[in-house]
Each structure stands twice: as structure tokens, then as C-alpha cells.
Amino acid sequence: MAQQTYYVRDTLAEQQPAPASTTGLVGWMRENLFNGPFNTILTLLALYVIYSVAWPVIEFVFINGVWTGDDRTVCTTAAQGGIQPDGWFGGCWAYVGAYLNQFMYGRYPFEERWRVDISAILLVLALIAVLVPNLPFKRWALLFAAIVFPVATIVLLTGGHFELGGFFFGLSGLAGLSGDFAFFADLAIVALIVAGAGLLAARATGSNPGSVVVPIIAVFVGIGVIMAIFAVDFGLAPVETAVWGGLLVTMVISVTGITVSLPFGVLLALGRRSQMPVIRSLSVIFIEFWRGVPLITVLFMSSVMLPLFLPADTDFDKLLRALIGVALFSSAYMAEVVRGGLQAIPRGQYEGAMALGLTFWQMMRMIILPQALKLVIPGIVSTFIGLFKDTTLVLIIGLFDFLGQIQSSFANPNWASPVQALSGYLFAAFTYWIFTFSMSRYSIYTEQRLHTGHKR
Fold first, then answer.
1. Containing H/E element for 63?
2. Are 339 and 269 in contact (CB under 8 A)?
3. What angle do CA 239, 243, 248 make, to 5 degrees?
4. DSSP assignment of 294-362, as one string?
């Protein structure tokens, strides 16, 4: 029998590279696209569908598209020396370029459009302040986004120098006041009434009166300071909202709706889950009413019917009416999204917070709401995206937003062609996709940054 020899290695074997078919792009495709007969067939079918849809779009937009010119004739095939002398088969982007300023600003005065540009820069800075985590001086950045940005934007876009008057049932009229003094007198009277009601509620519930009254007084003082700024004459020419249009109107409505709907939606969701019957009933009635009415009906009522219930000499701006209607409508939907997050929090979290002696608002602010809002980030962003796209409905009340401004440009015979509408709608679709896709990607980033063991 032959003698067997055994060897023992005194060093580790040299590591060999992984097979080329399991790494890189080839490995990813084998694992995700071609890992079986069924998935292979689906992949090939999907590639065929993508090719059938994408290639005509690429051909229309890029290959046959016309980018420069002064009128409709440049978009004809004959002008390009094509093989179809009577055809119109490429995107007329020269028309989009000629109307780009109108698509962005509407009929906003040309010499005042620098104010819109500055407002756009302030919006970008405000978004950076809110959306970028771990930003230096975060509190000051949030203060800028919450107060400085909206006040400065309103003054820039409208010109400021508002004429204030008495409101809240004309309470200041009892003292013979009028004009701006009446406004601040009414504001002080209402602040005292609300603070008194808050004081009574604090005593009834055993809460610290200062923790209730001081924030109320601070809010009304802030409102008075802001309105005083609006009354100052900054030397800017007034621009009526009737001449606003294009992307400017779309951004004003969507940003206002998004900014207002989230905090109001949170309050409504908390009110719907309140143990106090009156608060719960009012919240339920508000939410169910606004969720049961189409947005187009809300806009129509705010524009056509609401003025019928106001005094004859009341001038209620049409854009402001639309902003209020959109904000209330979106707040109701946001409330249901937030309520879903509140219901997903285990009861033990509430009991643990109460065992620590936390008040209701401390419990909500530090324990419950951070968890609930984190769970419903997809729903919140979906509501924001839907609101951004629903701004196109304001066309029914005579406000020309981005899409409405594109549609109004079709009436110009200088650019009339079979491809004019298709080119305009493709440009609108691409613009809306840029905004909505950005919101979607940021929501995914936020989910990944905040997940704490929930990700599977």
C-alpha cells in the first residue's frame, strides 16, 4: 500500500476574486433581471415597452425638436430640410422659449420681476433652513424660514403698504377709532378675550396659567408687529394679484397650502382624538366636511359664492380666497394622515409618558408626535405632492397658474401648429415632475435617516 503524505499550510491561502458573472453590472442583472425564465420574459417584455414608448418621445423632443426661431415656420419640416415638407413631427421648443417668461411670471410687470426673483432666492434659502439637518445656527435658520421669509415675500410680491382697518366685528368702533388704529385696537381686544378664555381653561384643568396666557399674548403681539411691517411704505410699486400668473401662482398656492396644512392637520388630528367631547366633535365635523367636498367646489364657492355673503364694499382678494380654501381643504386630509400615525403608537408610550409626570403637550411634543410623524412620512409627502398638482384647478376661478398660462398661450396664431399643444404640455409635465420627484426623493432620504429599527 502506497504511503500517504499529509501537508499542513502555515499561511492563509491567497484570496481569489469572485467570478465575473456574480459581480458588477453583470452580476446585478443576473440576480435581479435574469434569475429565472419567468423574470427573464418579464424583463424582455418591459424593455420592449420602454423602447416603444421612450424612443418616440426622444425622437420628438431631441432629434426632431426645434430650439430656436421667431415664429411657427421654424418648426416645420420644410424649414429643416426634412423629407416630409408638409409635416410637423418635432417639438417646437422655440415656442416654449419665446413664452418662458410668461410661463414663469404671468403678467407680472416686467420692470418689477426682480422682486419675484428675490422671492425665489428667499424660498430656496428657507427650504435649506428647514430641510438640511444639522445646519449651523438651526434655530435662527428656522426663525428665518417661519417669519422673515413669508413677511419679506408678501412685501416684495405685493409692494406692502397695506391699509389696515378695524375687524373682528368692528369692536374698535365702540371707541370711535378707524383705520390702522382700529386694526390694532381690535387685535388687542381679541387678544385679551382669548387670553381670558385661556386663563379660565387653565384654572379649570389645573394647569399653570402662565404657560397658557403668555404664549397667547406672544402670538398676538407677533401678529401686531407683522401687520405693522405690512403697513410700512417701502417705496415699492403695488402689484395686484390679478396680474400674477404662471409658476409664481403655482408656487404661492402650493407653498402656502403645504406650510399651513401640516401644523393645522396635527392640531385637528389631536383634536379628533381628544377626550373632550366638544373639541372632538368640532374636529370631526371640520375634517369630514372638507374631506367630503371636492377641491374644485371649494375653489368655486370661495370665488363666486363667498362674496355674496360679505358686505357690498368688501374687497376680498381672489387669490387670498383660493389660498384659504386650499389650506383648509389640505389640512383636513393631513389630519387623517397624522391620525393614522397617532393610532400606530402603542398605548404603552402614552402610559410611560404620563407615568413620568409629563403634561399633555410635553408628552405630544417630546414622545408621541416625533414617532407618529416619522411613521407617516410617505403619507405626508404624498399629500404634499397631490396638493402641488391640484393647484392647476385654480384656473376655474380665473387664476392662471403654470398650466393655465401654458394653455392661454395656445391662442397666439404666430405659434399655432399641430405640435404647439403637445410641446407645451410636455414642458409642463417635465416641470411638475421635477418638483414632485424632488419631494419624493427627499422623503426617502428622511425615512432612511430617521428609521430606528423599523426598516426591514
1. none
2. yes
3. 90
4. -HHHHHHIIIIIGGGGS-TT----HHHHHHHHHHHHHHHHHHHHHHHHHHHS-HHHHHHHHHTT--HHH
Distance CA(393)–CA(400), nearest Å, equals 10
Gyration radius (Cα) of the chain, Å: 30
> Three-state DSSP class for 92?
strand
How much is the pTM? 0.85
- Please give the DSSP secondary-structure letter assigned to residue 2: P
CA distance 179 to 116: 30
User: In a 10 Å sphere around its CB, with 0-12 CB exposed, 13-18 middle and 19+ buried, how is residue 18 labelled?
Assistant: exposed
Q: What is the largest CA-CA distance in the chain?
A: 125
CA distances from 239 to 164, 165, 219, 395 (A): 17, 20, 29, 20
All three cell numbers of 339? 391620525
What three-state secondary structure class fits 401? strand
Amino acid at 72: R
Which is more confidently placed, 214 or 340?
340
Count how many Cα atoms sit within 13 Å of the Cα of residue 420 in the half-sphere of its side chain.
20
What domains can you pick out in the chain, each with its CATH number?
23-62 (no CATH), 254-400 (1.10.3720.10)
| Burial degree of 57 (CB within 10 A; 0-12, 13-18, 19+) | exposed
DSSP structure string for 223-255: HHHHHHHHTS--SPPP--GGGB-BHHHHHHHHH
More confident residue, 165 or 227: 227
* Cα-to-chain-centroid distance, residue 79: 43
The pLDDT tens digits for 72-121 are 888 876 545 444 445 677 889 999 999 999 999 999 999 999 999 999 99
326 pLDDT tier (thresholds 50, 70, 90): very high
| 149 within 8 A of 125, measured Cβ to Cβ | yes
Q: Stretch 259-287: mean pLDDT, rounded?
A: 92
Residue whose C-alpha cell is 379649570: 204
Q: Which of 380, 383, 381, 395 is nearest to 428 (CA)?
A: 395
**Residue located via cell numbers 391640484:** 390
φ, ψ dihedrals at 398, nearest 5°: 85, 15
Beta-bridge mates of residue 106: 244
Cell triple for residue 390?
391640484
